[in-house]
Amino acid sequence: MTHTSLVDEMVGGVVALLLIAAGVRVFARRTGLPFSITLVLTGMALTWVAGQYPYTATAVAALHVSPEMILYVFLPTLVFEASFNLDWRLLRADLWPVLLLAVPGLLLSTLVIGLVVSAATSIPFTQALLLGAILSATDPVAVIALFKQLGVSRRLSTLVEGESLFNDATAIVLSRILVGIIAAGSFTLDQAMWGMVDFVWIFMGGALIGWALAAVARMALGAVESDSVIEITLTTTLAYLSFLVAEEAFHVSGVMATVAAGLSLGGRGRMSISPSVRKYLDSFWEYLAFVANALIFLLVGLHVNIGSLIEAFNELVWVALAMLLSRILTVFGLVPLAGKLPGSEPVDIRYQSVMYWGGLRGAIALAIALSLPHFERSDLFVTLVTGAVLFTLLVQGLTMDWLVRMLGLDKPPLGDRFARIEAGLIAAQRASRRIPELSNSGLFSRAIAWRLQEECAKETDEFREALEQLRSAEMDNQQEKRLLLLFGFAEEKSLYIDLLGRGHLSEAAFNELTLTLDLQMDGIRNRQDISKIDYHHLLRRQWAKRLVSFMDRIAFLAPVTRLFHLARIAHDYEVAWARMQGSSLVLEELGEYTTLHSFSEGVVQDVRAMYERWRVSTEKRLDEQAEQIPEFVNAMQERLGRRMSLLAKIEAVREQEKRGALPRGVAEDVFHDLYHSLRGLRGIEVAALDVAPLDLLRKVPFFQGMAQPEFAILAARMQSRVFAEREEIIRQGDLASSMFFIVRGVVRVSRAEEGKTKSLATLMAGDFFGEMALLSDSPRVATVWAVTPCNLYELNRQDLFNVMDTYPEIRAIIQRAAAIRLKGTS
Length: 826
What we know:
Elements: H1 2-31, H2 35-52, H3 58-61, H4 67-85, H5 88-93, H6 95-102, H7 104-120, H8 125-135, H9 141-150, H10 154-184, H11 189-222, H12 228-249, H13 254-266, H14 275-302, H15 306-311, H16 313-338, H17 349-357, H18 363-370, H19 378-406, H20 414-440, H21 446-474, H22 477-501, H23 507-525, H24 542-552, H25 558-596, H26 601-628, H27 630-659, H28 664-680, H29 693-697, H30 708-717, E1 719-723, E2 728-730, E3 738-744, E4 747-753, E5 756-763, E6 768-769, H31 771-776, E7 783-786, E8 790-796, H32 797-806, H33 808-825
Antiparallel strand pairs: 1-8, 2-7, 3-6, 3-8, 4-5, 4-7
């Protein structure tokens, strides 16, 4: 009976807190106060009410949540939600300042707080270091919410939130190490060295486990088709499993594991989630984060002991001063240094000021303090951490709005302001076109319709005037062209998302397309010269080329290398096809931009010329590939047609189900079969590139006079090779071990002389190369690279000499060709 009563009280208390949190959220939105700060104040008010008026809020005020629940239930939710929604591309661009603040910065902050507190109070240095580690973990929930209200730049939000994600993990790891040192009762150099080794292993080990589990989750999500229950369950499992496996099985950082899992799944892995589920998934995690934050901050307010805070007032003053001093040194000392590192951009001094003042403390610091093992000052630590959290929330949190506005960071970028005014203009124009329909129906007052029409016309004029003022005050033709390009890129990105969702685009192709788009959009926003924007430049990954070059030298890896080459050719075709679709879509939409989007005719024509150039280049590439690899192109087109047919069937069945013509159970069975067929047609058909070797090799004039038995023996000794466009086949100066026969594609022969590259020849299907170095037993005299995707056959030195001994006419052909080429190169 007593147990049931306790459960009832806990459930009732949680329900009451959630209802209170919902009311506080409404109040905070209307007043503009930060939600988390309002929750803390509400919790403190509830405690006062419970003390003054018993039985009114006693059940809520008495509610207690253990630190283990905060660390194992609330923390994975908050960390995963934040990392899942953090823009990995923006984080990667500012990774140096984020990591410097999160690791060396937190260590520096810990040391500064430890030195100040130990010097000014009676707390020993080792224990003061532990307090410093706890209080160096930032919690920017209130600040990020304020940023969203004010429209602060995404870069600043990423810097603040990224630092918090990583330094939470650092603080927990460092606190764990310092607790061990305090328990040992001594602090030696050996302990410090082993502590650093433990720190690196715990931090990096957690990240590795999170990344590995996210990779498994991505594969599982890719196998599921539009099942919100399973997909949401998989993401929830990943959040908690990564934390538990890291903490309990490997004894590394659970927070770091969850951060890595969230970043991995929220970045490229997000496209593994079915398009129809993504919206539900975002809402689900947003709600879980709301519940966790609401309960934590209400409980913080509920358990503030004013008497203990007054008793520890002197220590609290020194703790607050130490936190502010440590924050000054870490932000203004390390962030400028990070801006000078390779690949990193400087961080504006205004951003640094907001990062300094926005370093609030919150639930993580309280959870660490509450979970500490008992020692002589453990109660004092809880009081000091609580006081520090309240100081940052009530003093820094409530003045952040003023600071952001004073620094001018609340002003949206020009593109956002233009888009906002333009959206109002389009809405007013559409409303104006719809009003006559009401009037013409005969059921609507013409006087009201006329008045509404006048209001819409007035709004349209106001928006047009605002656009003209913005254009004349802040925009020139180049700026207008940048905005139009951004709109065009946004149209393309939307198309690629749709193509991925329909199964017309693989995840790898989608990732490359959107990465290129994001880079170009960043270039435009950073005022890069528009004439240098080459959107259709294919990104080449040097590490992949080096890997393939290494694999080429290992004989038993030949089948794997060949598959890799085939996949690259198929990938390049898929990317070019998607870019063709994107360019065509934007060219169609550009006709509306002059009238509907208020862009000048000259700017629209300039952008149209850019997109026409891009469309022609991709069309040329597709035509070349259709000529060089017709079997593959035909297979791709057939797969596309089949997918479109299946999608049409799915839409028809869904329409029948909505109308009630098809029972739900029957419709689900049909959907299951159709989606199963659709999954089998996702991605690309690499096998279509792997054409029968003898059929292709027979087309080379070199072998046409050879008898079938001898040809079959020779063909069996030759190795089929596939090279992607622009890939190097042989390099000048390398030792020769084989020659090549071209069965499909075009290659270019060039030679480096005195620092310049000279083009020697272009070879096509039926030609051969590489024989000169073999015959003269000397290094390669030229470099050969693929102009288009190529199918080649490689014949090694011994087999070549056997063929030449057996077939004198072939010896003559090779020697004659070698003599001609030797004369050409000399």
